[in-house]
Design brief:
Length: 222
Amino acid sequence: TFVPRAGYTGTLVLPYTGTNSNGSTFEGEVQITVSPTYSSTHFNDMGPYSNQERAAVEFLYDLGVTRGISSTEYGPELPILRGDFAVMVYNAFGMTPSGSFQIFNDVPSNARYAQAINTLYSRGIVSGVGNGDFAPSANVSRQDAICMIQRALRAVGQSAPDGAYSALSSYSDAGYVSDYAKGAMALAVQRGYLPTSGNYLNPGDPLTRIDMADILHRVLTY
């Protein structure tokens, strides 16, 4: 299986040595050409978006990490809710159930996102909003999403140290990044995880479905 890094296009050459049934060997090569995704296979509302964004949605859809808001629409500009994002992170990192039966008052055990939230909480990836609540129906901000992803990377044994704060200094709204999120946001900027608009990080803005796909695609193929 070959998975190209997010945004990559071009041709790769993989040399190999094969062995015949009589024990003799031969040389060869495999050429893999990666082309832009010009259209979406599954959704009809992805036309205005970049090749990388369309590829991200297709990648996560094929992995079973995300789905559309209908059979034909993805809803790229809609915000992601905290409960839904927990499910996406849970699926993206291939986690298995763990944690208590019910941790938060507002996450009943039969909720579709309960298993994901409880597992992520038990692994230190998510936390509540106070008073024993998780607020699964609230929007997740861009900086909070990046913090969750950093913790998820660490939880599955991948290196995800805090980035250098200086990585944020060139952005006009760097001062709006919360103290608790600076290390994670700096890491995201340094590794190219975070799609930005112009010279802005927009840390407190709700994470949209298209940016969620773009971020997770970059993270999973880094």
